[in-house]
Amino acid sequence: MIILTIAFGGERMSLFKRKKINRPKNPLGLALLQYDCIINKDLKKIIDKIKSGRLPDTAKIIRVFNESECKLDRIIEYISKENLKIDYRSDKARYMIIDMIESLKTLFKTASSHGFEEERISRDRNLLSMEQIFKAREDLKSYMKDIESDYL
After folding, report:
1. pLDDT digits (tens, 9 = 90+) for 81-117
2. Residue 140 domain-assigned?
3. Using CA atoms, how far apart are residues 114 and 13, in angstroms rounded to an integer?
4. Largest CA distance in the chain
5. Shortest CA distance to 140 belongs to which of 109, 104, 99?
């Protein structure tokens, strides 16, 4: 470390820095960050396998989704009307987030009950597809810009 200090004019400089992730100050932005982490880390492999048409191991999917479902339930509890008091403009975003989470949970429950067969899943007319859920996320992103959230 002394050699690096001398080489850079006396300033201490670390070689390996961690990427700093700033937590959103807006509670709805924090809920969206947690939702995105669940989608992009926990459920990404499962969603990709289902989209490609390969049938993944059902027991593993159910186990991973049960863990994710607990996390999603905690998000809903965190942003519930009883636990989070926000202004009237943000109420719409709250309900959009809750609807998005509930539709994702319903999709996975229905898919697991039908054995992840796309033909049987597509027969259910009340069920939103993954594309519709991702479109709802994009709509929510534009709405979060309107309410000036620090996380989109």
Report:
1. 888 888 888 888 889 999 999 988 888 888 777 776 6
2. yes
3. 56
4. 69
5. 99
